[in-house]
Amino acid sequence: MRAVAEALYVDHPHYYFLVDRDHHDDATVEKTWRRFPDPDTNNLLIWRRRELENYFLLPDYLAKSDYLQKSLDELNHALIELARQRLYFDAANLVISRLREDLKANWIEHFKKNEGFETQENGLQQLLGRGEYQKYQEKVTTHLREDRRRELFEQIVQDLTGGEPNLALGRGKWLELLKGKEILPSLINQCFRVSSVEGKILQGTAAVNAVARNLIRKPLAEQPGDFQELRRLVEERVLPRS
Questions:
Q1: Maximum CA pair distance of the chain?
Q2: Which of 26, 214, 239, 240 is the most interior residue, by most CB within 10 Å?
Q3: Are 29 and 2 spatial neighbours (Cβ–Cβ below 8 Å)?
Q4: What are the CA-CA distances from residue 157 to residues 5, 145, 181, 184, 213 (Å)?
Q5: CA-to-CA distance for 216 and 211, rounded, in angstroms?
Q6: Spatial contact of 21 and 98, defined as CB atoms under 8 Å apart
């Protein structure tokens, strides 16, 4: 999606892109919010939480749902337990995402001039003689060392938990960075009762969508801060002024 945004913004300056945070760091995310839309690079905005679903894991926000069947304490307990079950699984996958992304860098440039490519042998020697191969091999070896993978895993667990053995609301970044897309359906299944207009009980994606729509229809002042800020950015920077 980032590549699409970068490719299209010149010819389509009024195309806007909103994507999950995934592997992006805080600095990258905040830069998109400060500059959105950015006529010099792209019109891409990155959620501050890992996925859109993570915003619907906020207990105080979820508690506003008309479908909630549990107390706030019961909702909080269920949320923490579901997150606890995924903690180290998601931490390991976040390490893999970080390693993959770090090694995506454009580590070798194309040749700029055609001097020295007069014959097949010349071309082959030019190709084989580039020093970047050895440097990149060394970088990969360093990057994938066991001690670095261990360090990254421990760092991510520290960030998620806030350095404590048990998860707690208001501590660490687990509510922001665990995979909300997987937690939210289970939480809704446990704590909500969602029915259609005909009275049919909804489950799975249908139930998740119903809860989300119900919450999004609440007054703007009751929405998560990023939703309110997105609305402001659209009104101030995107919509034509009268």
A1: 77
A2: 214
A3: no
A4: 32, 19, 19, 21, 32
A5: 9
A6: no
The two three-digit tokens of residue 168, written as one number? 């707690």
Q: How far apart are CA 13 and CA 241, in angstroms?
A: 17
Q: Is 180 helix (H, G, I), strand (E, B) or coil?
A: helix
**Beta-bridge mates of residue 42:** 38
H helical segments located in the chain: 2-8, 26-35, 52-55, 59-62, 72-102, 120-128, 132-143, 146-161, 174-177, 180-191, 204-216, 225-233
Number of Cβ within 10 Å of residue 153's Cβ equals: 17
Q: Report whether the peptide linkage leading into residue 37 is cis, meaning its omega lies within 30 degrees of zero.
A: yes
Q: Which of 162, 191, 193 is nearest to 175 (CA)?
A: 162
Q: Do the strands 44-46 and 17-19 form a parallel or antiparallel pair, or are they unpaired?
A: parallel
Cα of first residue to Cα of last residue in the chain, in angstroms, is 32
- Decide if 159 contacts 177 (C-beta within 8 A): yes
Coil, strand, or helix at residue 46? strand
Give the pLDDT mean for 199-215: 94
Residue % of the chain over a pLDDT of 90: 76
- Interatomic CA distance for residues 76 and 161, integer angstroms: 16
Query: Measured between alpha carbons, how far is 25 from 42 in angstroms, rounded to an integer?
Result: 18
pLDDT band for 57, please (50, 70, 90 cuts).
very high
